[in-house]
Amino acid sequence: QFVESGGGLVQPGGSLRLSCTASGFFTDVNAISWFRQAPGKEREGVSCISGMDSYTYYADSVKGRFTISKDNAENTVYLQINSLKPEDTAVYFCAINLTRRRCVGPLLDYEYVYWGQGTQVAVSA
């Protein structure tokens, strides 16, 4: 399972660091991704980090503002979000792709079987 944390209410332009801690899986094996789902919208894959070599992928909508990283010793994947915008408001989930060790974009949510419960990010003045 995965446990996400780090969400909250921030003002536009602010930053957050989301954490995703895995149990029962290892971050140095399979690709792990962050998805987000805003109210009334489809789930969107925003970033991925490969298990085998830490290769990263970002959706165009977040490039330059989001940074994914991991600590294999802690079995934790992080998502640093800078320059937050109101349109970043969503529930953020992490998930593991058991069929891929390296990230391939675009991120397809049906390839991910195990998901965390999500952490809410709200961006508002």
Can you tell me about this structure?
It is a single chain. By secondary structure, the chain is mainly β. 0% of the residues lie in helices and 46% in strands. 35% of the residues are buried. It is built from no helices and eleven strands. Strands 2, 4, 5, 6, 9, 10 and 11 form a seven-stranded mixed sheet that branches. The radius of gyration is 13 Å and the shape is globular.
What structural keywords apply?
125 residues, seven-stranded mixed β-sheet, mainly beta, globular, four-stranded antiparallel β-sheet
- The beta-strand count equals 11
Please state the structural category.
mainly beta
Helices, by number, come to 0
Residues in helix, %: under 10%
Major sheet characteristics: 7 strands, mixed
- Low-pLDDT runs: none
Q: Mean pLDDT across all residues, rounded? A: 95
Distance from first to last alpha carbon: 34 Å
Query: What radius of gyration results from the CA coordinates?
Result: 13 Å
Shape: globular
Order of helices and strands: EEEEEEEEEEE
Q: Beta-strand level of the residues, as a percent range?
A: over 45%
